[in-house]
Amino acid sequence: MASLAPPLRVCRGILKEIRAAKGPNYQQSIVYRYLLEQFRKNQVTSEKLCRAQQESLHSASSYLCLLSSVRLHSSLHTLYHGRGERSVEEAAGLVGLRLPAQPGGKGWEE
User: Fold this and answer.
1) Residue 26 — very low, low, confident or very high, per pLDDT cuts 50/70/90?
2) DSSP letters of 27-87?
3) For an engineered disulfide with 67, which of 17, 26, 82, 96 has Cβ 3.0 to 4.6 Å away?
4) CA distance 7 to 107
């Protein structure tokens, strides 16, 4: 079984994704308050070690993976989504190719 990331790292990662989605005033959103409330509620003290904390950490890690994957998917979609007909040079540039240069013209011109 893979080990889980520390809870603080997961919380900061989710907050980073919320900031990317909501903008600069993300701290006034309901999602922000709910997230902090859940992380505080599931904190482990020295007297208590329970399975529910590990389950909630696993759920939070899965949610962080989902949020980052959705953000990356939407950025890739906007980058590569078809915008109609592309020129040959532009299509070659998308996959990292360059068209060969024709020295001195095409050869059939006078």
Assistant:
1) confident
2) GGSHHHHHHHHHHHHT---TT---HHHHHHHHHHHHHHHHHHHHHHHHHHHHHHS--S---
3) 17
4) 67
